[in-house]
Automatic annotation (TrEMBL), chains A, B, C:
GO terms for cellular component: cytosol. The lineage of its organism: Bacteria, Bacillati, Bacillota, Bacilli, Bacillales. It comes from the Bacteria. SUPFAM superfamilies: NAD(P)-linked oxidoreductase (SSF51430). Keywords: NADP, Oxidoreductase. GO terms for molecular function: oxidoreductase activity. InterPro entries: AKR, AKR_Detox_Biosynth, NAD(P)_OxRdtase_dom_sf, NADP_OxRdtase_dom. Residues 14-290 form the NADP-dependent oxidoreductase domain. This is Oxidoreductase.
Length: 300, 300, 300
């Protein structure tokens, strides 16, 4: 599978597997291990986590599976996130839902993630959400210390608008390597408001969360979903895709920003569908027909 | 007429003539040639085209006229645009309305424009619209090759917001020389959202399309048009202008960004009215009265 | 009181006193002098003016008081603003409400401010509002001349969005030292749209006008005011504050951008309340509870 270079010493698989809903799948350790190996065998080597996924449980479930076959660690890249504080049974000390990007919180969060994921290092740490209360010097100090200690190799952000990216980066002695964004044919905000353009300007490949728009396209009854479905089905027939999800992945993969879609499914056949999308190359007419179905009007 | 320097070796006349609607005027070659000479004699030496104007016919009509008197070419600057793909009788291979800013499309488009305009070189090529599917490296490669081949002297954009400008420029080995924007007392968007401020920051003089708001001010029945008309008439009486169009041009010309309005009319008297506007200098009260009529409220 | 460094040779008190409504207080010279000395004795050494405050009368009232005890001048920093032109009995030559940031207007305005404030120099001059008609070269020329003549020590802006800041600063031979913004728990616009983030990026401490939202929180009957009041009262009880105003100041003071709130009251007890706020350190839960009360929903 194509690799995307994020730094001199870090590359990701073009498709990434996301563990956001691992806790919902009710998988045994063996099931999870099978899923990981299924992905790895097909070249998907990058796995996306966050401390809070599954109310602070998904990292642990993944770590348990990884412990069964520790040799897999060196074949994969692990991404995790921190910065959101969530009230949860697992964290009784949390009172309100808020953000915390202080040095102390980031360091503590990484200790938890390393232990839960049963690993010595994180390949990429992301600040989960832009924090209106961020002290960028604190965040930068945490990043520098974590890198020095070998606990985290590289750093990025998620859901950051351009001013938030520029602000944080101005405090860092090294560049941020990615921005994980909501990017799909259904959700065009980051295509339109300059967020994706900053990635192109900085030559930073973005990760795409909810590349299938969380299913809203498949079952949605709103006009946008209905319009998009019709175009995706037409395009699918034209290129010979088996399902709409392939077309949605292909639409993102065709964009010049080198978008890395995150596959959020625990089903092997959905992972395989995403992999099939790598072979489709939409032409300009097809790409814009999908865009315009989503916008509900032609480009000007 | 005042000249505006866009690059060391490129200056435009302060007023530009636009051929957007040339195909609608039903002009003979002689009529068109007369219009061109009328403009040139009065110092308007810059002519604004796009491949798609008149559904891909305006460049050709202009070229036919220019062929009658090829010596005029060296007295004028030719601007054209590419990047929009329009379904048209003239381009039966075009299926959907979309954008294409790939190297192949830009190179092909310039070959067509050179042939249609009956010229060896374009003074300024603009990307017509920001393309959400742009691969900036492809666009940059096309620009570099066209400049090396002597087919296009300078490059700019049209309708680009700040993030789109910064993104494309970061891939170029030379600066973009202008942004052609919708700018008029009726349409303030680019005055307010940072687009014009980027021109000032980069010290790039913008071109203004629809400086008269496409006639909406003269005949519009919306409150904004009614308010503006009243103020324009009052200001016109104060300065001694013959018509509202003079005041609208004068309002743009007075702005410090060195805006170059594009006159879209094929009538000599409307061109002459624009030229008369060069003599009016609105004072601060007059400039803000017009602004505030358009906004519908005072500045804060 | 904590000092905030704005430049190598300029620091402000963390809390600033604002004279916006001085003309409304009907203070005698002695009253005003008393107020000034009350602030100075408590470490509030920075006083915020604008030419137009009190319809061009507040600077004069302050100057009259200062004349009673000229030795105070060297113990304080004087901020004033220019750029708004207001129709007023005091300025019969003004026809319409507009902006003027030309060199001539700025120089004239400073002559008036120096005379009215009975001082030889202004510590900080701010452009009061972003001027859509600004010629940044004129503004820069005025700044350079005023600094050379020793009439103004440093320069900044007020209410500037990021593109307005970047544009003006690109014309200046020295950095702008602050942006005076509307910042309060009730008015979050500048927290959200990148304006405050530019301050952090440029490491420029902002001044906050209307830190108490002009009273709308205390008496407002809109849902936002009601929600905020409830949270502010709860937080006040938790930290032991005497009133909501202390909590509002503490919320701003806790933000990492080193916000300098402007106290707009002429009452000594309200000044003392602001000073008490310096001792409170809201925790993350408290800071976000106030933010979320204002937004009306949780952070994502």
């Amino acid at each position: 599978m194509e690799r995307i270079q994020l730094a001199e010493d870090l590359s990701f698989s073009r498709l990434i597997h996301g563990l956001w809903r691992l806790a919902d799948w009710n998988y045994s350790n063996t099931d999870t291990l099978n899923l990981i190996e299924h992905a790895l065998e097909r070249g998907i080597t990058t796995f996306d986590h966050a401390d809070i996924y599954g109310s602070y449980t998904c990292e642990t479930l993944f770590g348990h599976a990884l412990k069964e076959k520790p040799s897999l660690r060196s074949q994969m890249e692990l991404v995790t996130k921190c910065g959101i504080v969530l009230p949860s049974k697992q964290r009784p000390e949390h009172k309100t839902h808020h953000y915390n990007t202080t040095k102390a919180h980031i360091l503590l969060s990484i200790e938890n993630s390393l232990r839960n994921l049963q690993t010595d290092y994180i390949d990429l740490l992301l600040i989960h959400r832009p924090d209106p209360f961020m002290d960028p010097q604190e965040t930068a100090d945490a990043f520098v210390q974590l890198q020095k200690e070998g606990k985290v190799r590289h750093f990025g952000v998620s859901n950051f608008k351009d001013h938030q990216w520029r602000m944080l980066e101005s405090y860092l002695p090294f560049p941020l390597v990615t921005n994980q964004l909501e990017l799909s044919a259904y959700n065009l905000e980051n295509f339109e408001d300059g967020t994706l353009n900053l990635c192109l300007e900085k030559q930073i490949p973005p990760m795409a969360w909810s590349p299938l728009a969380g299913g809203s396209i498949f079952s949605g009854t709103d006009e946008k979903a209905i319009r998009l479905r019709k175009t995706l089905e037409k395009t699918g027939r034209e290129i010979g895709a088996e399902g709409m999800d392939e077309v949605l992945y292909a639409w993102l993969l065709r964009h010049p920003a080198r978008i890395m879609p995150i596959i959020g499914s625990g089903k092997k056949d959905r992972i395989d569908a995403a992999i099939r999308a790598l072979q489709w190359t939409l032409n300009h007419d097809q790409w814009f027909e999908i865009l315009q179905s989503s916008m509900g009007h032609d480009v000007p």
